[in-house]
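Here is an idea for our session: we take a single protein and study its fold together. Once you have written the record down, we can walk along the chain together.
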Amino acid sequence: MKVVIHIGYPKTATTWLQDIFFPNVSNFQFVSWREANSLILNSDCFAFNPNNIRDKLLIGGRNLLISSEFFSTAINSGFNYGYFSYGISHKLKELFPDATIIIFIRRQQSLIPSAYQQYVKNGGTYSFKRWLYSGEVFSFEHLIYSRLVEHYINLFGERQVKVFLYENFKRNNRGFMENFCQQFGMEVDWDKIDFNPTNRGVRLLSLLLLKVVNHFYKKPVGRKRFICHIPGMTTVGRGVIKYLNPMPIFGRFLNEDDFLTQKDLEYIKNFYSQYNCELTKYFDRRVLEGYGYYL
């Protein structure tokens, strides 16, 4: 029996993997992020009983596929200083010591604006600059990929930790996933797989409208400002995302150039380049540079 655990990072096609791809892997029992969080994440570390959880997850001796980007800690909970991801890693080791760990990474200057848009979609109100630099929501340390990878290698062993580039997936998603399945022995009916993105970004006017709406309800989305709580405003916010954001009249979809100034890019480069150099243990330096990773 194989156990494969996908831990993120967030904003690396996790929604598509969890909603479209993983449920269609026929020879693995898939455990969604909701169930995984309920059983593993949302339990006290000192009261965690791996035997009980294992009994609930293992059904009929089938291969097991677990996916939750929260295992690497949600980007907008960066103020937890890595305690979540550290604690969860030890839970996973207790639970399935021989599991294969899957980690997707994405160049930081691309992931950061995407994570901010998700923060606003989830109810956030901070400006991009405050979100990025205040330390109240986002943490730069959270995206030091090499440290998380090395930590899992120390726990599970080098052969059991597999790291992938989101950029490789984005360049050729079908080819990437075919190789992915071959590597892990996964069987998929490809006719059932829709390769269209499931989690689009935010349009210009949608972002402005969302930030106004978000000021009128209180929601635990990391940190935010709110004027007062008006019941039903969360539904209004979801309506903006679902019905208005797809409409071209609300402007173009935003990209990293709409958020990051040259000064921001210099800060990101100075912060991450020394750590990204450690990723050359796992990827060819020319590949990383070609995708824009700061080295």
